[in-house]
Every structure is written in structure tokens, then in C-alpha cells.
Amino acid sequence: MPSKYNRIMERVEVTPEMKERLMANLAKQPLSKLAHSRSRTRRWLSESRRFLYVAACLLILAGGAFVAYDSLVQDGVGNPPIETVNGNEEFASLGELSAHIGFEVKEITELPFVPTETLYISIAGDMAEIRYAAGEQALDLRMSRGSGDNSGDYESYPDIAELQVSGRNVTVKGDADGYKLALWEEGGFTYSIRSSDSISEKQMSDIVNSVR
Questions:
Q1: pTM: predicted TM-score of the whole model, two decimal places
Q2: Is pLDDT of 206 > 70?
Q3: Widest CA span of the chain, in angstroms?
Q4: What secondary structure does DSSP assign to 29-43, as a single string?
Q5: Per its UniProt entry, which superkingdom is the organism in (predicted)?
């Protein structure tokens, strides 16, 4: 029994003219199209190989870096500071900061607010800073060897006074709202306290007195 395909093909009639047009069209384009297709395929394969090679190199480098870092950590070498920004290094505790900077760093034991964050920072490797913060309120204590103003506060305050706090000669600076800066020298070190908010003379004296 003839198949459906055979029955259909028996009804197809290709005239000599149709055959001639078909052969003419095939003669015009297939070789150029085939060449163009092959060229595009070669370019795609070449680009794909380059991409895979670069990706493989990146994976090898990343893996090597991770292995090296993991090895340092396991050997006890990879315990770097939490963060380094512009030469300043942040540490996890007061003890770590003191060990890094080479002297025992004092801290404030009485604050006018309850801090939610305390940062221990080495500035340029020779100055210690402890930053106490709670929201937008902050208080900074700096300690460094030698003398001079180490606060980094260059604002011109209209009110400047000298206080005696437990034998310390303390210079306080502020305005009509209160004081924001305290400076003093003791035992070969320079200290500064800077407050984000203006505080009273008594509050500043209590803070300076609590530095231990």
C-alpha cells in the first residue's frame, strides 16, 4: 500500500521552468552563506575559548588567594585589625589597641550617656582614640606621646577656660551652650576629649576625672 508521503509526492509536479529557477537560486547564494556561517562559528568558538581561559585563570587565582589567607589564619598570622582606613586601624578591644600602639591606653569610665558602640582606633600608628557612640551622640578620647593639641578639632571656640581636675590643668573650649573640647597633658602624654554635643563644665570635669 503506498504511504501518505508517496501519495502526496505523486501529486507534486516540478516543471522544467521551476527546476531551472531553483537551480539558479541555489547557485547564487549557498557558498557565500555557508562560508559566512562557518566564519561566524569559528569566531564564536574562538571567543568562547578565550572567555573560558580567562575565567579559569581567575578561578585559579581566587582559589590560591583563599588558600593562602586560610593558611595564615590557621597559623595564627591572619588576625589582622578589623579595618584599615587612611592609615588608621581599628581593633576589637582596648587590650589589642594598647598592644599595637605600644603603651597602655586609658579609657573613660563615666560617660554622660550609655554607648551602644565603642571603637578602638590607632591613628597613624602613634595615637590612640576611643570613640563612644549612641546614635548621633558621640564622645572621643585621644591619647598620644608628647605635648600639643591632638584633638584634630580646628574650630575657633569663643569660650575658653582653664580648670583644675584632680591635679590636672585642663583647657576646655566651647560656646554659650557649653563645652565640646578638653585638653591636658599628664605623665608624658597628651589627652583630648571631644564631645559631639555641648556639655556643662561639671560634666566635662567629671568625664576628665574618670579617665583611668
A1: 0.62
A2: yes
A3: 122
A4: SHHHHHHHHHHHHHH
A5: Bacteria
